[in-house]
Fold each of these.
Amino acid sequence: MPHYRAEGDIPRKRHTVHRVTGDVVFEELIGADGFSGASSLLYHRCSPSAVVGIDAIDADPAAFQPNHPVRPLHLRTGMLDTDDSVDCVTGRRVLLGNADIELAHVRGSGRSALYRNVIGDELIYVQSGSATLETSFGSLAVGTGDYVLVPMSAVHRWAVTTPSIELLVISGSRHITIPSRYLSSEGQLLEGAPFSERDQRGPVFGPPAGNVEGEGVDVLVRTRHGMSRHVHATHPFDVIGWDGCLYPWALNIGDFEPVVGRIHQPPSVHQTFAGNGFVVCSFVPRLLDFDPSAVKVPYHHANVDTDEVLFYSAGDFVSRAGSGIGVGSISVHPAGFVHGPQPGSFERSIEADRTGETAVMIDVFSPLGITAQGLQVADPEYAWSWSRQP
Ligand SMILES: [Fe+2]
């Protein structure tokens, strides 16, 4: 949970009359877990409930096929039939998912529609490019290597500031948080946590780019049943101030401080976020295990209760060299399959003292399904990659 912030024009006491140029403003609570979790209060010039139209739009929920017979997968996002002219919301290609999580990829451009996801928080990893996340809380500039955490129900849109941007979208079914073991009982990031409050970037409050006046403003609302369109009488960015602990924020993966050891450390030391039914870990450039006899590539392991997803973001992936894995790849090593380093990688790692890889791992605690789009870019030879000679 981010820390308390107060921006713009807010009344001294909450839930009291507040006027701007004589007009009473409208207070909106955006809060998690009923009234028991983190929350913020936003002050609108017009009612945030004033809608003048509601309809369904043509966007079916993702259909997942079971991974049967169970096998390791390699999805090549570079082979997705992408069109850079799509936006970062409606252009997403869902690849993997279950009731707890969906993983999607998009290469988008321009400014997206206004959007809110009421299924859960979204954690978006920026693989390349830059954008401004425009929200009711202000604008958040994001770029390559950023994790962007957008709370459930927060109205926002993506304004891409480079020719295109490439995103890995992790959509949760509830909230995505900082692991509790990194936090004091009061919520401060502890000494020894792999990042600190200085690394968390919140939105800059001010007039958002674009028109905030006018009538008939569309907001796409994502639910488990698909996408709805709410036509608001006035723009939801008509906020004059807000305060609280619930707002979008960003963390760059380069600000994650890796833990290294004399012998190999388990992936849990790289945990960055916790979701409902999954965790997210960051693998960043770091020194390798430094005992003279240490095996510097991961040992074979079976995830007895986890489907392990790895998105390969940058650098060389020594442990999987020769498998076809490269930047933009997504591997899925499911429960029931023992996986380990590529044959020959141990020998190649003996003289190495550091790794330059950057990768995002998502460990999912229930079996993942795969969409037809995911299957289209799956490497049919990947399952045999460990049995090939180096
Ligand atoms: Fe693994």
Amino acid sequence: MGDIVVLRLGHRPERDARVTTHVGLTSRALGASGMLLTSDDKSVAQSIERVDKSWGGGFWVRIGIGYRSEIKKWKEKGGIVVHLTMYGINLPDCIDTIRNEFKAKSIMVVVGAEKVPGDVYQLADYNVAVGNQPHSEIAALALFLDWLQQGREFEKTFRDGELKILPCEHGKSVERK
Ligand SMILES: C[S@@+](CC[C@H](N)C(=O)[O-])C[C@H]1O[C@@H](n2cnc3c(N)ncnc32)[C@H](O)[C@@H]1O
């Protein structure tokens, strides 16, 4: 199984901070190892890193990256690029092929905010729609990650955290290390 990294395009600090933070938290919770952010918004990186310090796992965030050069480097290293867009091939019609590639290759998942630059559709190996209707990058990302990993993301252990939830049917139980 390869690695999963999420690339977040087009973040506008004044409008998208909360959604981009949730893109990062969702990526971390559902099996990705890091997030690349085209914006240089430090506050988003800091809040995700704070969560990772408390809850473990070693998720990383890199800000201020250039999407073209990151995609190029990723492909040169043998990784594949999946761009989530409502205009793409519907998830059930392409997930088997992508899963097959994921057995040996790492995946970069690209999500947008505002209008996505046209060349992203050409740079991506797969343009995937999570239903051909407009909705949210967080929902699209969560569903894609789950379909890709078929639930195995829930088996992941988050090492070296300060806090760990002890699941219980009622109430809250948290172990502090
Ligand atoms: C709120 S949308 C805005 C998209 C923008 N209007 C455009 O034309 O590219 C932000 C992001 O959510 C994701 N998204 C929204 N609906 C989606 C869908 N049905 N399938 C896959 N991704 C979707 C895409 O990554 C998109 O770039």
Amino acid sequence: MDIDSFRKSAHRLVDWMADYFQSVETYPVKSQVKPGATYDKLPSSAPEKGESMDAIFRDFQEIIVPGMTHWQHPGFHAYFNGNSSYPSVLAEMLTATLAAQCMIWETSPAATELEEKMMDWLKDLLHLPHAWQGVIHDTASTATLVSLITARETHTGWKINKKGFQGNERFRIYASKQSHSSVEKAVRIAGLGSDNLVLIDVDKQYSLSIADLKDKVKADLKAGFIPLWMVATLGSTGSTAVDPLKEVTEVCKQYKIWLHVDAAWAGTAMMLPEYQWLRQGLEAADSFVFNPHKWMFTNFDCTAYFVRDAESLQRTFTLIPEYLKTRSHGRVNNYSDWGIQLGRRFRALKLWFVLRNFGKEGLRKKVANHIKWAQDLATDIDRHPQFELLAPAPLATVCFRYRPPEVSDDDLNALNEKLLHELNQSGKIYLTHTKLADIYTIRLVVGQTYQQKHHIDKAWEIILVTACQLS
Ligand SMILES: Cc1ncc(COP(=O)(O)O)c(C=O)c1O
């Protein structure tokens, strides 16, 4: 491809992108293709001779697009939204064009310094403690692993980094039964062993039980274990339950446990004055993670990770081989010392575009609307005689099931699984499920960037009609 064809193709692709955004509602939200369908349409090896962009782009539209689930469709209510937005997409185009490795300050000073500034802006926007320092990671899973390894190293005086496990470390990790699977993954990867992850009971709201936490910590101490690290979740994946952070901080302080706060999705709500209760006690946490790539309309991947003690974090992860030594060492920030990867994408750029283009006011308005529409829906569901709300909806996720009186309790799980399947097959909306107290629970998340109130009304109407046609 020469530069003239690049220019021509780029214009064509941008037109396609704008058309896609305008017409995204005409696609089935969840891809309808069968397993293997995309694979079978692709040749068994790469072409010997280069192909034209026309041919490649035609196949993109004919083979790839049908096999995509449309996460930017306003009927997307599954998981937690992995959002983008127009300014974010534009920034991604520039990031791809610059294609810089932003591992150390010298490899792109602006990338490092913009990241530092964006972390300051996020602290201001979410009312996080001023003294914290932040870094962008790829995912919350990575940030959680980084937090655990830092806690492990800080506790042992950086000995495991150097000598490895000596066989006598008896660490315990705590998180609620509703915490995200990334917690157990981190425990495994950090070499602490899933058996040492102590899952704490939850109350009727699916929030961590402080009484059970205290009992389990005390029992562990009695048995000779060392309580090392715990995760408090603000907005659990299943039902967006909020752990009692203030009480958790007291337990952590008493037993010198590192406290990591996982607010992957819900953290964004801290920008709203009426959601300041979410962050009560937060200043006592050791680390905190939230994902602008979820509810802050910034393309995946973009996780904001904040720590109280950036020195311990860097001491845990810094490794400077000869080829990375620079004259600026000690005077500038090298973000590859703040985590696992050496090579780093320029992720701060899209955050900058999003924060500037929406403005704090624009972001607050969007998130407040999502919460309002979700809560109106929760009220409608609660009032409907054949539906049941299964968990509180403190934010913008609604957990419910269909419960027609003629169906016995034993058959409700299967009925709701069928309902979810039918809804997703319709291609009009996409929802996912969880189990709460062994009950098959349908989750509906409001939070796609360009969703409007009428999309939520339509989703509810589709649910009602589909449920009616089931029996
Ligand atoms: C509460 C919570 N923590 C962590 C994660 C993991 O996020 P990521 O995909 O960025 O690793 C999720 C994902 O939805 C989540 O809901």
Amino acid sequence: MKKILVLSSSARKGGNSDSLANEFIRGAQESGHGVEKIMVDRLQMHGCLGCDGCKRNPGICCVQKDDMFPIYEKFLTSDVIVFASPVYYYAVNAQLKVVMDRTYGILDQLKGKTFYLITSGASPKAGPFYDHIKEEFQLYLDCFEALENGGVIIGENGMGRGVMSDRDKAEAYNAGKNA
Ligand SMILES: Cc1cc2nc3c(=O)[nH]c(=O)nc-3n(C[C@H](O)[C@H](O)[C@H](O)COP(=O)(O)O)c2cc1C
């Protein structure tokens, strides 16, 4: 049984990326994994200060004791971390980017973990519309030592809320089932 941490960052609970995250969770739970989901948009947290306080004092030592603080521990104790975000201007949304930036404080402590990105956009999958967010995710992982990219799950044509296709939901479910 794996420990899976899902960080869902859309402000729209039950929106498109969140509904795919829920499918991933359903699959993962059916496979017997333990899942904790956090709605990132509900948290009070600030961007990384770049103060390098975390580098001067190794461990979980970010100088900002805000809502990110307990999440550091969850990162460290999870086998699998799932980011779920809408596509905002070809990239992850600001709420998730804050979390990603703040992992600077635990850069050296995530070795061996598997990360997934679940995202949804208004664009179709055909074409280059998701190239940037896929690259953003991979380059983020490349900043760490020995992290595995479990996969990127994309929900397309997500203009309204809760409009993910059965095919994209099945992809998210299967990714969770096989996590
Ligand atoms: C600020 C903003 C920027 C967006 N930028 C893009 C974009 O670059 N590409 C895209 O396909 N969709 C874009 N969209 C559409 C959303 O990604 C899409 O509606 C998504 O399914 C919303 O997911 P959610 O329900 O999980 O919040 C944007 C929407 C907003 C509000």
